[in-house]
Amino acid sequence: MSKLVRSPAWQALAAHRKKLGATSLAALFASDPSRARALTVEAGGILLDYSKHLVDAEAMRLLAALAAQAQVPQWIERMFAGEPINGSEARPALHVALRSRDATFPAGHDVMTEVRGTRERLRTFVEEGRRGALRGASGRTITDVVNIGIGGSDLGPRMLTRALRRFHKTGLRLHFVSNIDPADLEATLTGLAPETTLFIVASKTFTTAETLENAGRARAWLEAGLGKSADLSSHFAAATANVAGAAALGVSKERVFPLWDWVGGRYSVWSAVGLPVALAIGMDAFEQLLDGARAMDVHFRTSPFERNIPALLALLEIWYVNFFGAQTRAVIPYSEDLRELPAYLQQLEMESNGKRIDRDGNETDYDTAPVVWGAPGTPSQHSFHQLLHQGTRLVPVDFVIAYEPAPSAAQTALAANALAQAAALAFGNPTPGAPHKALPGNRPSSVLLLARLAPRELGELIAMYEHKVFVEGIVWNLNSFDQWGVEHGKVLARTLAPRLLEGGDAADLDASTRSLLARLRKHD
Ligand code: F6P
Asked: Which residue stretches of the chain have pLDDT < 70?
């Protein structure tokens, strides 16, 4: 049995979960009239109501003890001190530096000079874009920007560009391409003109097959439209930690915006990888996003567990995953503009904590990250909510509601639906009339209220989820900052592609892959 499972805090939680098994959310609310208020926490523009979770004061006390036992506060300080907490790659995880305003940070190995320098270069570039001063080879003003990237070099900027749609300044249209399937780029380029299109090639490593393939196709498209002899450098920019790799693709030095090996891809939207967002909303608004994230950093670093939103969300997830056997968590934003949030969180949470080997190299005997999934409400209600209400599985839900100070009728309808769903999950329908109509209730959810769907509040929200993932990783004794699980598949794909094209020896392959390869080759 692992040290974690044997630990007093874990064992106490297991015992308490058995005790709580007999109670219901309705009973918990009935026994404490102040429950809704007591289990609501606010930080900046975010309010978390976690009263509809299957916890009592004792459960929360024991969960806080688990976090203390895992030394979460000490690990937070280690992260902010720039210690190499990404052990398998011997690197710090310093995404917090990207939103810092400190003159030097962290103590001892300052990165702020580089961070500030890049921010200033981004500002100049973004302002040129906004003024219409970015021009293509023929001298015409750039009107469309296509971000080519995948994973962390795509999902964050894609999600935020969409979420901040109402803050877009007119001028530049943003597009995103990630799939190695040419259909992605082809569909995006339909209706765009080579003369007025700029490509941002975003890749931390600049070795990612999908991105390099799409960058090559983009170049071919430009050449076909502008002529082989055209100088294409004005049609490319790059965000990368591999400056030499970008130069090799022909991106001019002034257009390469660096990031660093101490930023994980899925934590990089605050860096030059956020360039599409900055081009869409302007650099001042982008800095508000950073400000929001920084405010959440302060909240996370200074608040005790019982008022610490990221820590509370992490501990609640641990509660369900490890003591109720929950396999998944749904994220349902009641906002069409937040429609990409579940996809963004899938990478952040599952690539960070989808692991079964702990920091000491041992296999865990407890579950780690759940499957994160979701879609925007209200369409989700007419799709998968049936299972949430009456299915056999326990699926904790994050309801995310953006409620503006002067809400429109449409926003009111969205919020009403979200609250109705959360209440129906928690309390069911007391007089269903017939068993098949019964909603049993007792199904937990968090309600996350965003004061506005605006840059600062989104910065807070995303940093909140980053820190939630961090706390989970610490308690589960994982390195949340590597992703070795995706490497092997990349290597295999590289060896299979030539054999699909040209045939050749397949003796090293398993029988299933060998037979599928043979079947696909018969199409030739
Ligand atoms: O394959 C997974 C991954 O390594 C992610 O962690 C990363 O965000 C993505 O690929 C893209 O990597 P890069 O930015 O280096 O192209």
From this structure: 523-524
Q: Name the phi and psi angles at 67, rounded to 5.
A: -65, -40
Tens digits of residue pLDDT in 70-100: 999 999 999 999 999 999 999 999 999 999 9
Does the CB atom of residue 266 touch ligand 1 within 6 A?
Answer: yes
Which amino acid appears at position 413 of this protein?
Answer: A
Q: Is the CB of 294 under 6 A from ligand 1?
A: no
What's the N-to-C CA distance of the chain in angstroms?
54
Distance CA 206, CA 113 (A): 23
Q: What is the pLDDT of residue 504?
A: 82
pLDDT at 502: 85
Q: What is the pLDDT of residue 170?
A: 74
240 lines ligand 1 (CB under 6 A): no
Sheet holding 397-402, edge to edge: 40-43, 46-49, 445-450, 397-402, 328-334, 371-373
- DSSP letters of 62-102? HHHHHHHHTTHHHHHHHHHTT---BGGGTB---GGGGG---
Q: Determine the Cα–Cα distance for residues 85 and 264; give it in Å rounded to an integer.
A: 12
522 catalytically annotated: no
Closest residue CA from atom 16 of ligand 1: 203
Tell whether the torsion through CA atoms of 232, 234, 239 and 242 is positive or negative. positive
The answer to whether 449 and 419 have CB atoms below 8 angstroms apart is: no
User: In the numeric block, which tokens belong to residue 107?
Assistant: 């103590």
Structure confidence at residue 505 (pLDDT):
85
pLDDT, tens digit, 9 for 90 and up, residues 7-16: 999 999 999 9
- Our answer on whether the CB atom of 211 is closer than 6 Å to any ligand 1 atom is yes
Pairwise CA distance, residues 55 & 12, whole Å: 14
- Give the number of the atom of ligand 1 that is nearest the alpha carbon of residue 205: 15
Among the options 351, 457, 460, 472, which is catalytic? 351
**Active site annotation includes 169:** no
